[in-house]
Amino acid sequence: MCRSGCWACWGAVRTGRPRTERMGTPSPAVIDAFVAAINARDLEALHAVFTDDLVLEWPQSGERIVGNDSRKEVYARMPTLPRIAPWRVTGSGDLWVLEAGLDYGDGHAYLGTFVFELRDALIARGVSYWSEPFPPPEWRAPWVERFQPGS
């Protein structure tokens, strides 16, 4: 379980048995290849899922990676790649969203959302958001329903 009590994301990452929901059209193979490459720590396979003129944005840190060569260098120097446990892939055409639990092996579970724009069956643009789950404030309780991400 993650620190905030989110069993769904933690359990999916730890057991390797995520609950995946695919809405409508099957997701493109490149998204499955992206997840498989990250989970296998296979940088060569990861390089193959992106266009050469790729743009990746990580809004939380204010970073933009321009070009697959720069992305290769960033990923090669990451201390560790996360385990990704997808639970929902939605989209159509060239715009797809992957929602997943992420585990960097540090004892904390994260929730992630990846927005992918595809071109020629490869990822041409990506925007990624991730955060540790946190408990909601009590004042919202009368107007919200609680749920477990991924369920």
Provide an overview of this structure:
The protein has a seven-stranded mixed sheet. The protein contains four helices and seven strands; from the N terminus they run αβααββαββββ. The longest helix is centred in the first third of the chain and has 12 residues, at 29-40. The model is unreliable at 1-22 (pLDDT under 50). 30% of the residues are buried. The protein is α/β, with parallel strands linked by helices and 151 residues long. A hairpin with a 2-residue loop joins strand 6 (109-119) and strand 7 (122-131). The protein has a single domain (7-132), classed as Nuclear Transport Factor 2, Chain: A (Roll), CATH 3.10.450.50.
Compact description:
The chain is of the alpha/beta class and 151 residues long.
CATH architecture: Roll
Number of strands: 7
Please tell me how large the radius of gyration is: 16 Å
Q: Strand count, sense and closure of the main sheet?
A: 7 strands, mixed
CATH class: Alpha Beta
Number of domains: 1
General form: globular
Q: What share of residues are in beta strands? A: 35-45%
Low-confidence stretches: 1-22
Layout of strands and helices, then pairs:
Blueprint: H1 7-15, E1 21-22, H2 29-40, H3 43-47, E2 50-58, E3 63-66, H4 68-77, E4 83-92, E5 95-103, E6 109-119, E7 122-131
Parallel strand pairs: 1-4, 2-7
Antiparallel strand pairs: 2-3, 4-5, 5-6, 6-7
List the main descriptive attributes of the protein structure presented here:
151 residues, alpha/beta, Nuclear Transport Factor 2, Chain: A, 7-stranded mixed sheet, 24% helix, globular
